From TrEMBL:
UniProt function note: DNA ligase that catalyzes the formation of phosphodiester linkages between 5'-phosphoryl and 3'-hydroxyl groups in double-stranded DNA using NAD as a coenzyme and as the energy source for the reaction. It is essential for DNA replication and repair of damaged DNA.
Protein family membership: Belongs to the NAD-dependent DNA ligase family. LigA subfamily.
Species this chain originates from: Dactylococcopsis salina (strain PCC 8305)
Name of the featured protein: DNA ligase
Residues the record lists as binding NAD(+): 31-35, 80-81, 112, 135, 172, 290, 314
Active site: 114 (n6-amp-lysine intermediate)
Parent sequence residues shown: 1 to 331 of 674
Top-level taxon: Bacteria
Length: 331
């Protein structure tokens, strides 16, 4: 097959997988298969840049807006994350960054667990939650404010005396493992189809039309990004400060985080959690490594799809959920 036709086929496969995964909450292939096909397409696009198409899954944040929801344009786009699959790839990313910021610059990193859920964008005006929106395609998401209000870990009002005029918070809605198993058990008893994993169950829950159903599912939430939009308010200058401030505002912030001064300590954080992740009450599929300084983040900026100042270092795949074991794909 000619390379162009093969690339088109890969794109179609990935687009079909995206639709099933993000909009139907019912994946048609395993994540590792998706990641392998994605990387193959990415490598071909690097080799043949003339054959890159603007609608390629490598150029866009996966997802979209499901029917029945009002779509909302994000004030600040939500990006995806570049992936590294081992410490060698992380070292390459660090070397590339160091080249971009200059050898004299000391780069500090914040390591956070990558929670396997769904990103939400929350807007607070004068301290009050006014809007909750899904990531969608990164530019536009679904307005699910009424559903978001049922999540206990999301404050309806910020816990501070003089809140900034506007605050934008990003974080991950997720289902703790036990809740996910309970939900699937109840679905089985009712003869309903099962969710493949907690991430798909979270996404299906966030898109329920009845907030009462969402409340019963008991979603949880970790906050990890803060934008203070107020000229008169003090704004954090590092990711670590933002995480502290989010906790002060009343958000649940994952305690499993660390400011690291070197690639070595990032590697140690990764190895520790790779071993210990089964002891957590929720699924994590890797470590997100972010540059701590906002000034450096600004200097590095974004590609069309990812921030250049962050990367997801993925854990090796865990056992495949039963429902997906039978799926084979055919490309
Ligand atoms: P991603 O989930 O790999 O990474 C980006 C997301 O990480 C962010 O949007 C955010 O929601 C989340 N995140 C969790 N913790 C975070 C933290 N502490 N800080 C910042 N972000 C955090 O990216 P994606 O584009 O949503 O999904 C791509 C992945 O989804 C693929 O690698 C693949 O494994 C899977 N996928 C699978 C299929 C399939 O058919 N099986 C289809 C599409 C995507």
């Amino acid at each position: 097959m000619k390379v162009e036709a093969w690339m088109n086929q890969l794109r179609r496969q990935l687009q079909r997988a995206n639709y099933a995964y993000y909009l139907q909450d019912d994946p048609i292939m395993q994540d590792e298969v998706y990641d392998r096909l994605y990387r193959e397409l990415q490598a071909l696009e690097e080799k043949y840049p003339d054959l890159v198409t603007p609608d390629s899954p490598t150029q866009r944040v996966g997802g979209g807006v499901a029917e029945g929801f009002v779509s909302v344009k994000h004030n600040i786009p939500l990006y995806s994350l570049e992936n590294a699959f081992d410490l060698g790839e992380l070292a390459q990313w660090v070397a590339r960054l160091q080249g971009q910021v200059g050898d004299d610059e000391t780069v500090e990193y914040v390591c956070e667990l990558k929670i396997d859920g769904n990103a939400l964008a929350l807007t607070y005006e004068d301290g009050v939650l006014v809007r909750g929106v899904t990531r969608g395609d990164g530019e536009t998401g679904e307005d699910i404010t009424n559903n978001v209000r049922t999540i206990r870990a999301i404050p309806l009002r910020l816990a501070m005396e003089n809140p900034p005029a506007r605050v934008e918070v990003r974080g991950e809605a997720f289902l703790p493992r036990q809740r996910f198993e309970k939900i699937n058990q109840m679905r089985q008893e009712k003869g309903e189809s099962l969710f493949a994993n907690p991430r798909n169950a979270t996404s299906g829950t966030l898109r329920q039309f009845d907030p009462k159903v969402v409340a019963q599912r008991q979603l949880d939430f970790f906050a990890y990004t803060l934008y203070v939009v107020d000229e008169n308010a003090e704004t954090p200058t590092t990711q670590a400060e933002s995480l502290e401030l989010l906790a002060e505002m009343g958000f649940q912030v994952n305690p499993q985080r660390e400011v690291c001064q070197s690639l070595k300590t990032v590697g140690e954080f990764f190895e520790t959690w790779e071993k210990k992740r089964a002891s957590l009450l929720y699924d994590t599929d890797g470590v997100v490594v972010k540059i701590n300084s906002y000034a450096l983040q600004e200097k590095l900026g974004f590609t069309q799809k990812f921030p250049r100042w962050a990367i997801a270092l993925k854990f090796p795949a865990e056992e495949v959920p039963t429902k997906l074991r039978a799926i084979t794909i055919n490309v």
